[in-house]
């Protein structure tokens, strides 16, 4: 189904052309002055110079062409040359009914499905999952869901940091605690006992070992040696690594599940490692590897660079490989396994240089196919109320599991007053409200912006919050239920008319949502979905305030209103689903 803006633009483009002007001038946008009209076109102003005609004249002739079109209740020229468009009620109703009839209530679909890999999450095993990785998970999940909704084949890959020094640090510490275990020496045999280990142990060991390595050179040396041994595949170390991996990933899965985040692939740097040699030989064959102080590097500086882009170190002087090398190897694997149209990396914007280097080196060596779009979708920092990167009260980095607990209990406190939710469901509902609050609080800012984590505000029932959205959904639920409409998921019925200005406004928001979905997709920016969801919810509140749906006596009006409630419900849920937010039935 064409979006409303596409349909209007098509109409205007044709009219411009028929009047002898460039059809590209027919681009329609949502009105800047919703008090005057629904949509507008600024083409006459833009094209006046090219066509050597006064904007008012150009606009006037286009408007005359469209004056009788049933699409518009009003089409007029406003100085100095805007074309103002007001849709006719019948067009609004037709479109809403067409949406209601379609699968997923007319949700947008891409014409040509593509294969897109979204690399997001990026936690490091053996380290507790902390809120630094929270944004990657929240934003990446939403971008993945949006692209899936549009009909693309989307593969979400967590790209675990599971092959680095942090493993060596943990193993070095375990070696001190369990010196007699065979895995630390050369005598390890398959099936030998490994040190006992839990997720809590790992959470305790990593920070301690990391601190120790800063103070104790010998310890640090041993940690590096174990990392080296791991990467060379020494059996005992590898077996212990596998154990650490399983424990960590089990713990990660539990936390991500609470956040409603899931991945199609649980690959990591260790999987990419298998392709490192191949990648190095490709660089070699193409003569791209150069010597630089004992290291092997690829030069990627380009003439038009405004600031220097340093060469990519593929092999360090000690023979080890880098974060960059691993990412290039992962790219090689992705091309081989999926030959994707696009690979998007949802990673902290401070890693921009890393990705510039990786992309350039991969393209230079044809490891990434010419057609593959490689994009770093960066994001800003989550700050505390003091405007500095978010920390716990005692100054530490908050763990994700603690964060989920904090928001759940804050939501629980708010709910205590409510007797709408049965006691045994409260905990689950509270988690959903808490997670909705943090996700919406995050996603409603453009991803590149830093933002302030303000749980009180995020949990507020008014304003642009996840809580307000969930509340709106439950309100519609209860109206539909009281009206005896059972399954809210059923296709919404037909609208029969427009009976109040408030419902006209609500319908305009619903009809316009698809355009915002496309905008979000073009920009890879879920904040437009948040904005659309909020606009619909706010318009619904006004509609609900102005009209007494359940006590309405006119049966046609009442039925039409209930159908509008159902359509609003479906679209709000579509928005929430793309944001990765679970709705609740009551709160
Ligand atoms: N593990 C990395 C970190 O914690 C993030 C990984 C991002 N993805 C990637 N393909 N480099 O910084």
Give a structural overview.
It is a single chain. By secondary structure, this protein is an alpha/beta fold. Among the domains are: 4-87, Gyrase A, domain 2 (2-Layer Sandwich), CATH 3.30.1360.70; 165-258, no CATH class. It has helices at 4-18, 43-51, 55-66, 89-101, 134-149, 165-177, 199-215, 217-231, 235-258, 269-273, 276-285, 323-338, 352-364, 400-415, 426-443, 455-458, 466-482, 501-523, 527-546, 555-579; strands at residues 28-30, 39-41, 72-78, 82-87, 115-120, 153-157, 290-292, 295-298, 312-315, 342-348, 373-379, 382-383, 451-452. The strands form four sheets. It has a four-stranded antiparallel sheet. A four-stranded parallel sheet has the order 6-5-10-11, sandwiched between helices. A three-stranded antiparallel sheet has the order 7-8-9. The longest helix is centred in the C-terminal third of the chain and has 25 residues, at 555-579. It starts with a helix and ends in an 8-residue tail after the last helix. The structure holds arginine. The site of arginine (ARG) has 8 residues, from strand 10.
